[in-house]
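User: Structure with 3-phosphoglyceric acid, tokens only please.
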Amino acid sequence: MDPDGARSLLVSCRLLPVIVLNDADTAGWLGSTLVDNGLPIAEVTLRTPAALQAIERLAEVPGLLLAAGTVVSVEQVDQAAQAGASVIVSPGFDAEVVQRSLERGLLPIPGVATATEVQAALRAGVQLLKFFPAGSLGGPRTLQALAAPFPQVRFVPTGGIGADDLVAYLRLSCVTAVGGSFMVPSALLRAGDRQAIGERIRAAVAAASATAAEPS
Ligand code: 3PG
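Assistant:
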């Protein structure tokens, strides 16, 4: 999927499920569970040996937008692109990772925690940023204050967000999508509990479609 298509899907779903996969075989059923429950997006973190293979498997699922997460090097950008990812998510801002993602026609979403990092990302030509770790940094109030001087920037707050505070982030006009592992928790993945994962996905999708962003 090209960067514009990826951005549009993120805008319409308003959710980015973060997935830590220890077993690439899990990808076989996870992709269809996401799509069938109305959330055709997966961010697979490159923190496990199985991650790239899992992205390859998920890339076979029609209509599923794939992001690689925890991308911290140019080599990982190349590996993620090769595996089939369209979006490159990083915990922090790295100009080389951003540049390589743009060169390869991928959508970079680098992480920021400060206004200095937002300015660096803007200089690199990126206006969609991950606010990380959102919960520990002060949650929606901090994000709203950080976003105020940068009306052109949109955020994907991630880190420490759960089903209970999802709506507070979705109400912010600076938020494109909310990221987190709460939609597809590792424990349920390991247990192979498709039903419980499906319920969590449906609940998040329902919250996202019921919550309009409030004017800032
Ligand atoms: C990430 O990789 O983006 C975060 O570790 C996800 O954070 P969470 O598990 O607190 O949602």
